[in-house]
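User: Can you help me understand a structure? I only have the sequence.
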Amino acid sequence: FTTPTPRLIQPTSTSQRLIPPRISSTTCLASSSPASAAGAQESSPSSPINPKSFREGEVLGLRMMQDGRYEDALKAFQQAMKLPGSRSDILRTANVAGPSPVGGSKGGTEGRRVQTLDEFEYQAAHYNMACAYASLGNVGESVANLKKAFEYGFDNYATVRADPDLESVQGSTEFERLMEEVDPRKFNPFKVFGK
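Assistant: Let's start by predicting it. Here is the structure, written out as C-alpha coordinates:
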Protein backbone atom coordinates (compact mmCIF):
# COMPACT_ATOMS: atom_id res chain seq x y z
CA PHE A 1 0.00 0.00 0.00
CA THR A 2 1.47 3.36 -0.97
CA THR A 3 0.07 6.80 -0.46
CA PRO A 4 -0.05 9.07 -3.51
CA THR A 5 2.34 12.01 -3.66
CA PRO A 6 0.85 15.34 -2.56
CA ARG A 7 -0.13 17.71 -5.33
CA LEU A 8 -0.15 21.46 -5.43
CA ILE A 9 -3.39 23.27 -5.83
CA GLN A 10 -3.09 25.57 -8.80
CA PRO A 11 -5.71 27.30 -10.90
CA THR A 12 -6.72 24.57 -13.35
CA SER A 13 -9.89 23.24 -14.82
CA THR A 14 -12.56 22.22 -12.33
CA SER A 15 -12.12 18.51 -13.06
CA GLN A 16 -8.44 18.62 -12.04
CA ARG A 17 -8.85 20.37 -8.68
CA LEU A 18 -7.95 18.34 -5.62
CA ILE A 19 -10.30 20.19 -3.27
CA PRO A 20 -13.47 22.25 -3.69
CA PRO A 21 -13.46 24.92 -6.41
CA ARG A 22 -13.35 27.81 -3.91
CA ILE A 23 -9.67 27.01 -3.33
CA SER A 24 -8.02 28.04 -6.54
CA SER A 25 -6.23 31.37 -6.36
CA THR A 26 -3.58 30.32 -3.85
CA THR A 27 -0.77 27.81 -4.02
CA CYS A 28 -1.34 25.87 -0.82
CA LEU A 29 -0.28 22.28 -0.53
CA ALA A 30 -3.00 19.69 -0.12
CA SER A 31 -2.32 16.11 0.82
CA SER A 32 -3.95 13.58 -1.42
CA SER A 33 -5.16 11.25 1.27
CA PRO A 34 -8.04 8.97 0.32
CA ALA A 35 -10.09 10.23 3.26
CA SER A 36 -13.16 12.11 2.15
CA ALA A 37 -13.28 15.85 2.56
CA ALA A 38 -17.01 15.92 1.96
CA GLY A 39 -17.73 16.17 5.66
CA ALA A 40 -15.68 19.33 6.17
CA GLN A 41 -17.91 22.03 7.51
CA GLU A 42 -18.58 25.17 5.55
CA SER A 43 -16.56 27.78 7.38
CA SER A 44 -17.92 31.08 8.55
CA PRO A 45 -16.40 33.44 11.10
CA SER A 46 -18.72 32.15 13.84
CA SER A 47 -18.71 28.42 13.04
CA PRO A 48 -16.73 26.17 15.36
CA ILE A 49 -13.81 24.20 14.01
CA ASN A 50 -14.70 20.52 14.45
CA PRO A 51 -13.58 18.37 11.52
CA LYS A 52 -13.47 14.61 12.05
CA SER A 53 -10.37 13.72 10.00
CA PHE A 54 -7.10 15.30 8.93
CA ARG A 55 -8.42 15.81 5.40
CA GLU A 56 -11.54 17.62 6.62
CA GLY A 57 -9.41 19.89 8.82
CA GLU A 58 -7.03 20.54 5.95
CA VAL A 59 -9.84 21.54 3.59
CA LEU A 60 -11.35 23.77 6.28
CA GLY A 61 -7.97 25.47 6.82
CA LEU A 62 -7.47 25.96 3.09
CA ARG A 63 -10.90 27.58 2.81
CA MET A 64 -10.01 29.91 5.65
CA MET A 65 -6.73 30.78 3.93
CA GLN A 66 -8.70 31.57 0.78
CA ASP A 67 -10.97 33.85 2.81
CA GLY A 68 -7.99 35.66 4.39
CA ARG A 69 -8.68 34.20 7.86
CA TYR A 70 -5.08 33.17 8.54
CA GLU A 71 -5.29 32.79 12.34
CA ASP A 72 -8.36 30.57 12.01
CA ALA A 73 -6.58 28.59 9.28
CA LEU A 74 -3.63 28.01 11.61
CA LYS A 75 -5.98 26.67 14.28
CA ALA A 76 -7.62 24.38 11.73
CA PHE A 77 -4.27 23.01 10.49
CA GLN A 78 -3.02 22.49 14.05
CA GLN A 79 -6.23 20.71 15.05
CA ALA A 80 -6.12 18.61 11.87
CA MET A 81 -2.73 17.23 12.90
CA LYS A 82 -4.39 15.70 15.98
CA LEU A 83 -7.12 13.97 13.96
CA PRO A 84 -7.15 10.60 12.20
CA GLY A 85 -5.12 10.53 9.03
CA SER A 86 -4.90 8.11 6.13
CA ARG A 87 -2.33 5.62 7.52
CA SER A 88 -3.84 2.53 9.14
CA ASP A 89 -1.99 0.94 12.02
CA ILE A 90 -2.68 -1.40 14.91
CA LEU A 91 -1.96 -0.19 18.42
CA ARG A 92 -1.10 -3.13 20.67
CA THR A 93 -3.00 -2.89 23.93
CA ALA A 94 -2.51 -6.13 25.92
CA ASN A 95 -0.89 -9.53 26.00
CA VAL A 96 -3.33 -12.40 25.77
CA ALA A 97 -2.83 -15.82 27.37
CA GLY A 98 -3.05 -18.86 25.14
CA PRO A 99 -1.63 -19.77 21.77
CA SER A 100 -0.08 -17.10 19.60
CA PRO A 101 -2.12 -16.04 16.58
CA VAL A 102 0.95 -16.68 14.40
CA GLY A 103 1.63 -20.09 15.93
CA GLY A 104 4.62 -21.66 17.58
CA SER A 105 4.72 -19.82 20.87
CA LYS A 106 2.41 -19.07 23.73
CA GLY A 107 0.55 -15.79 24.06
CA GLY A 108 -0.38 -13.05 21.67
CA THR A 109 -1.48 -9.46 21.74
CA GLU A 110 -4.71 -7.57 21.43
CA GLY A 111 -4.84 -4.37 19.53
CA ARG A 112 -7.07 -1.73 18.13
CA ARG A 113 -6.97 -0.19 14.69
CA VAL A 114 -5.91 3.49 14.55
CA GLN A 115 -5.56 6.02 11.74
CA THR A 116 -2.43 8.17 11.92
CA LEU A 117 -0.97 10.85 9.69
CA ASP A 118 1.37 9.79 6.92
CA GLU A 119 4.44 11.77 5.83
CA PHE A 120 2.53 13.54 3.05
CA GLU A 121 -0.08 14.79 5.49
CA TYR A 122 2.65 16.10 7.79
CA GLN A 123 4.30 17.79 4.79
CA ALA A 124 1.02 19.43 3.76
CA ALA A 125 0.15 20.56 7.30
CA HIS A 126 3.54 22.16 7.94
CA TYR A 127 3.71 23.76 4.50
CA ASN A 128 0.21 25.22 4.88
CA MET A 129 1.04 26.50 8.37
CA ALA A 130 4.18 28.12 6.91
CA CYS A 131 1.97 29.89 4.35
CA ALA A 132 -0.43 31.07 7.06
CA TYR A 133 2.38 32.33 9.30
CA ALA A 134 3.93 34.13 6.31
CA SER A 135 0.58 35.79 5.60
CA LEU A 136 0.51 36.96 9.22
CA GLY A 137 4.07 38.33 8.91
CA ASN A 138 5.61 35.80 11.31
CA VAL A 139 8.85 34.94 9.49
CA GLY A 140 10.34 32.77 12.25
CA GLU A 141 7.34 30.44 12.57
CA SER A 142 6.91 30.30 8.81
CA VAL A 143 10.51 29.22 8.26
CA ALA A 144 10.32 26.75 11.18
CA ASN A 145 7.27 25.08 9.59
CA LEU A 146 8.94 25.00 6.17
CA LYS A 147 11.88 23.25 7.80
CA LYS A 148 9.51 20.67 9.32
CA ALA A 149 7.88 20.11 5.92
CA PHE A 150 11.35 19.49 4.44
CA GLU A 151 12.19 17.10 7.30
CA TYR A 152 9.08 15.06 6.42
CA GLY A 153 10.32 14.80 2.84
CA PHE A 154 8.84 17.78 0.99
CA ASP A 155 11.34 18.67 -1.72
CA ASN A 156 9.63 20.95 -4.23
CA TYR A 157 12.07 23.82 -3.71
CA ALA A 158 11.00 25.69 -6.85
CA THR A 159 7.46 25.92 -5.49
CA VAL A 160 8.68 27.20 -2.14
CA ARG A 161 10.76 29.88 -3.86
CA ALA A 162 7.85 30.97 -6.11
CA ASP A 163 4.79 30.53 -3.86
CA PRO A 164 3.00 33.90 -3.52
CA ASP A 165 1.76 32.86 -0.05
CA LEU A 166 5.38 32.85 1.11
CA GLU A 167 6.30 36.15 -0.56
CA SER A 168 6.75 38.03 2.74
CA VAL A 169 9.27 35.40 3.89
CA GLN A 170 11.18 34.68 0.68
CA GLY A 171 13.66 37.56 0.95
CA SER A 172 14.47 37.03 4.63
CA THR A 173 17.82 35.86 5.92
CA GLU A 174 16.19 32.91 7.72
CA PHE A 175 14.47 31.74 4.54
CA GLU A 176 17.62 32.02 2.41
CA ARG A 177 19.66 30.20 5.06
CA LEU A 178 17.10 27.36 5.16
CA MET A 179 16.96 27.08 1.38
CA GLU A 180 20.76 26.95 1.12
CA GLU A 181 20.71 24.18 3.72
CA VAL A 182 18.06 22.00 2.05
CA ASP A 183 18.24 22.66 -1.70
CA PRO A 184 20.80 20.23 -3.16
CA ARG A 185 21.16 22.22 -6.38
CA LYS A 186 22.75 24.97 -4.33
CA PHE A 187 25.35 22.61 -2.81
CA ASN A 188 28.88 23.73 -3.67
CA PRO A 189 31.36 22.72 -0.93
CA PHE A 190 34.39 24.25 -2.63
CA LYS A 191 32.76 27.53 -3.76
CA VAL A 192 34.75 27.14 -6.99
CA PHE A 193 31.90 27.39 -9.42
CA GLY A 194 30.10 30.33 -7.83
CA LYS A 195 26.56 30.33 -6.52
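Now, to help you interpret it: Confidence is low (pLDDT under 50) at residues 1-26, 32-44. The longest strand covers residues 87-99. Let me know which part you'd like to focus on.
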